[in-house]
Design brief:
- With 352 residues, this protein is an alpha/beta fold.
- Strand 12 and strand 13 form a beta hairpin.
- The longest helix has 26 residues.
- The protein is globular.
- Bound molecules: 4'-deoxy-4'-aminopyridoxal-5'-phosphate (PMP).
- The site of 4'-deoxy-4'-aminopyridoxal-5'-phosphate (PMP) has 13 residues, from helix 4.
Amino acid sequence: MSYELNDKIINLVPYEPISGDFRIRLDANECPFGYNDEFMAMVDRAVRNVNFNRYPDPVCRKLREAFASFYEIDSKNVTVGNGSDELIFLIESAFLKKGDTMLVASPDFSMYEFYSSISEVGCVRYLKNTELNIDIDELIDIVNSENISLVLFSNPCNPTGQGVSKSDCKKLLKSVNALVVLDEAYMDFWSEDESFIKDVDSYDNLIVFRTASKAMGSAALRLGFAVANERIARAISAVKSPYNVNSISQEIGSELYKNKEFLKNRTKTIVQNTKLLYNELLQLSERVEDFYPYPTKTNFVFIRTDKSSEIWQYLKDNSIAVRLMGKNLRITAGTEYEVKEVISCIKKYYNL
Ligand code: PMP
C-alpha cells in the first residue's frame, strides 16, 4: 500500500518566519508596542469572562459591535476571521468555482496567489509599473478581457507601501463584474478617507478586509475582519467554520477596540516613526549609489537596492531582522530607538 501527497501540495514547505532571537525585529510589519499594564489588566478581566467549557460565539457578536463602533459602521456588515489570512483563503476557495480565474497584482502580499493554487483556481498576475503603482485602466481592461471573477489587492500595499486612490478604486468597482476585495490591513496608517469600509452598502461586488494585527498591535490574537454588504456578509458567515475565532481573542478583542483614542494616538506615533525612517533612508540614499527607498502610506519602507542581501545579512549579524525580498528590503518602523538603531547600522554598513 502507498499513499502519495497530491501534486499541488507535495513540494510545499511550511511557512517559516525568520528564525532566531533578534534584539530588534523589523521584519513582519508588526506594531512595536506591547500591551501596557492597563491593557494587561483588561486582558486579565477579559480572560475571566470566558466560559472555557463552552464553544465560542460563532458570530462574534460583542467583538463585531466593538469593531463596528471603532470604525463607525454597522456590525451587520462585519464577519470575523482567524486573522485576515483565514478570510483570504475562505473568500478564494468559496467565492470562486473550479475553472474561475482571479487576478492579483505583483508585487503584493504573497498569500493571495498561494491560496489560489491550493484552491485550484486560475490566477492572473498584473505587473505593477516601475514606480510600483497600478494603472487602473490597464487593470480594468485585463479584468474584463480575461473574464476575471475576483480581484484582490492590498491597499495600501504590502510590500511596496503604495496606495491606490479612492477614485481609482471606485472606477474599478464600477467597471467590472468581478468581486473586488480591498485588503486594507494597513489603512489605519494612511487615511480613513481612502478607505471603503463605510461604503460597502453602495456596491454589490465589494469586500474590505481589516486586521487587528498591525496598527491595533494585536497580531497574537489572530483577528481579521471582512466588511461587506449584508448579502455578501451572510455568505461569508455561511461558509466559514462555525467556531473559527476562539473565545479568548473575542473577549480581549471586544475590549481592545473600545480604546479608540489610545489606539488612534498610538497609530499617529507609528506614522511619525515611519516618516523618520523614510526621511533618514532618503538622506542616506543621497550619499550612496543604488539605494532607493519608496515613499510609503504604511508602517514600513520598501527599498530597492542591488545590495539587499548584503545589507540584510549585515543587519542580521547585528541582531536586527528586516525582510529580504529579492533586490528589495522591507523595513518596518519600530520605536524611535529601533528606527535610529537600524539607520545607524545601515550607515555603518556603508562606512558613513
Ligand atoms: N493582508 C496583508 C496585506 C498583510 O500584510 C497581512 C500580514 N502580513 C495580512 C493580510 C494577514 O493579516 P492577519 O494577521 O490578520 O492574518
